[in-house]
UniProtKB/TrEMBL annotation:
This is Ig-like domain-containing protein. SUPFAM superfamilies: Immunoglobulin. CDD domains: Ig. InterPro entries: CD80_C2-set, Ig-like_dom, Ig-like_dom_sf, Ig-like_fold, Ig_sub, Ig_V-set, T-cell_Activation_Regulation. One of its GO terms (cellular component) is external side of plasma membrane. It comes from Oryzias melastigma.
């Protein structure tokens, strides 16, 4: 290591730590029952990015005298998962606490000649780890295009995809919305349906166990093996944006669907009958008035 920092010492059958550098205090040990067999391995716990570097090991024996060996230590903080959110006309892709410094790129599927405005920032934390975030500006006409965010390091790569699907109309208080155009069962995947980005409707874990939130129990009619969601007893209060998030082994796919009532239709289930009752009542009153007049 630069400057020959003292990491650990052992002689006269015991640890000698008087010269140990403070940053290694309480984090080093030897396998003392193996030293007599020639094993001078060092156990380093609580590893930090700053521990990366070249370590020199000096051993002394009566038979062999002094021997020196070197070990190059590389530290990694693996890329675990990509977080993807959508707010207004922005898709935000991010991941935190990564080392070494990651790379982020955007792509479109199917390929498009259009250019998209994007902004990417990388922040180095006090722990020398990296947080990376990028936003992509959307237009209103980008339906059925996969916007793919890829974050990579030398040892790992993760992807997250976002798609705006065609809007769905509520008919007779019911609607069915899908995560994808495929009916392939989501075996080994986790699933989350949300309303207006925040309110969780239903979740499914990798063991295929579904859980419907209390507020939506009366509205969730069915959740298929492919994640297709059928809703019932819907009104104008349920118009809005529905988001499906499917994850597996760190990769994520999101689909956004707008749910709308037919144009010119009133959402209140009883409004039609109320209007009809008013019309009938008015007609009866008119007939009675005419009879009395005669």
């Amino acid at each position: 290591m630069p400057g020959k920092v003292h990491v650990h010492g052992f002689f006269e059958n015991q640890d000698q730590l008087a010269e140990q550098d403070q940053r290694f205090k309480g984090r080093t040990s030897l396998f003392q029952d193996r030293i007599s067999e020639g094993n001078a391995s060092l156990l380093l716990t609580g590893v930090k990015v700053q521990d990366e570097g070249r370590y020199q090991c000096d051993t002394f024996t009566i038979e062999e005298g002094k021997e020196t060996s070197y070990v190059n230590v590389k530290v990694t903080a693996p890329l675990q998962k990509i977080n993807m959110t959508q707010t207004e006309n922005l898709i935000i892709c991010s991941s935190d606490e990564i080392y070494p410094e990651p790379h982020l790129s955007w792509s479109i599927s199917p390929p498009s000649s259009r250019t998209f405005r994007k902004t990417t920032t990388v922040h180095k934390t006090e722990k020398h780890l990296y947080n990376i975030s990028s936003s992509l500006t959307l237009s209103d006409s980008e339906e059925d295009l996969d916007h793919i965010c890829t974050i990579s390091t030398p040892s790992k790569q993760r992807r997250a995809a976002w798609r705006r699907r065609h809007s769905v109309t509520i008919i007779s208080g019911e609607a069915t919305i899908s995560c994808s155009s495929s009916d392939t069962p989501l075996l080994g995947f986790s699933l989350v349906w949300r309303f207006n980005q925040r309110e969780i409707i239903v979740t499914k874990n990798e063991d295929d166990e579904h859980r419907v939130s209390e507020e939506w129990k009366q509205h969730v009619k069915d959740v298929s093996e492919s994640g297709r969601l059928t809703l019932q007893h819907l009104s104008a209060d349920h118009e809005g944006t529905y988001t499906c998030e499917v994850s597996n082994d760190g990769d994520t796919s999101m689909a956004q669907i707008s749910l709308r009532l037919p144009e010119g239709k009133d959402a209140s289930p009883g409004m039609g009958s109320t209007v009809a009752a008013i019309v009938i009542f008015a007609t009866i009153c008119l007939i009675i008035f005419c009879i009395l007049k005669h």
